[in-house]
């Protein structure tokens, strides 16, 4: 089976290489010329564990290639996956310009039956619109079918998630298209991955409802954490005990600076917008968004309360990416928090194992310096703030850190450390929701 994958971002590149690993012949297309040239030299444009070897293996076995030539790729494929970006437009709606651009190009390039598979997260109704739009602009009297196949992979464990998904959702009105896509994923039947086949709208909504629910868990536990701080309770124990209830489950009950990343912020906004547009407000999700914004602000207040006015103070920051094991800083809590600290006159010494280049592209300020390890970032700082829970931050030499810092103050905004262990070494320690009202 010959497949085109449009978009070589976090989803497109992993999915393209994954489909090649399933035995398909995959051509990945991107309009970003530098990216395609880099990929043809074996350079992966972002950090994702195992991706370099995964891509290399599938390029070597001749099943994976890269091009900017969409027309050529489409002519040679029966199935066209779309994995372009669908960011927030800044007004709480989804910016569909990348999808619209692809739709126009596809309409020009298609001259025989094709199945278009939408992997991007798109608002309800987009896939039906896409089919009609392409169909109306085709040069010949032929049919195209559209399948909604939302992606659920997580950055940081993207390959494993793609190769062993919790479920595969396929939405379509065409039995023929559905059969073609099921055939592509047939290796997943061997590992008994559940398939959910449904109509286009249901598939689109499954993705938003899933992300909105996960974001709800995060905002919920952050509200619990805030109450913990008021009453001297420990959110870590509350969450653990809650999570032991199988109806609740332990995942996504970690309090911290609030959710970020390229998906939850925009997908919760889009879900709330959908509810509003339909006259059926998504009040819970609206509250989830407000709680998340407030949580960021609380973190900044926490830092100020711990070290006083920030003007002229040096603050060490560990972790810039929105989560560990990625270089992605999109909507990272660190962006909001570091920029707020800079605005308030602080100087930042930062370290992140993979995200410093990306962070620097967004935050270009002479008051922030980047260092090669945690101890260097801590040197001379009045407080050390943990913003991402990278594994390498879990076992730092705390005595060495204390020597490096100007003042032994730790703001553990990811609750990485046990408070007693840190305070026993003479630090002032503040986590999130851990009985310390700062
Ligand atoms: N990142 C994630 O963890 C994740 C997980 C699940 C779903 N999603 C969804 O998947 C989609 C893609 O996300 P991403 O993070 O991979 O995006 P991304 O921004 O990393 O990548 C998008 C890529 O598409 C390319 N592109 C844009 N327009 C194009 C065009 N007309 N022709 C060819 N290439 C084009 C861009 O150059 C870019 O390389 C989004 O809808 C997102 O919500 C993302």
Folded structure, characterized:
By secondary structure, the protein is of the alpha/beta class. The protein has 2 domains: 2-208, 3-Layer(aba) Sandwich (Rossmann fold); 230-430, NAD(P)-binding Rossmann-like Domain (Rossmann fold, 3-Layer(aba) Sandwich). It is 45% helix and 14% strand. The protein is built from 18 helices and 14 strands. It has a 6-stranded parallel β-sheet with strand order 3-2-1-4-5-6, with helices on both faces. It has a 6-stranded parallel β-sheet with strand order 11-10-9-12-13-14. Strands 7-8 form a two-stranded parallel sheet. Helix 5 (97-109) packs parallel to helix 6 (126-137), helix 10 (200-231) packs across helix 12 and helix 13 (283-307) crosses helix 14. The termini are far apart.
Write a brief structural summary.
This protein is α/β, with parallel strands linked by helices and 438 residues long.
Number of helices: 18
Shape field: globular
Helix coverage percent of residues? 40-55%
Q: Report how far apart the termini are.
A: 59 Å
CATH architecture of the largest domain: 3-Layer(aba) Sandwich
Structural class: alpha/beta
Q: Give the integer mean of the pLDDT values.
A: 97
Q: What proportion of the residues form beta strands (DSSP E)?
A: 5-15%
**Strand order, biggest sheet?**
3-2-1-4-5-6
Number of domains: 2
In CATH, the topology of the largest domain is named Rossmann fold
Number of strands: 14
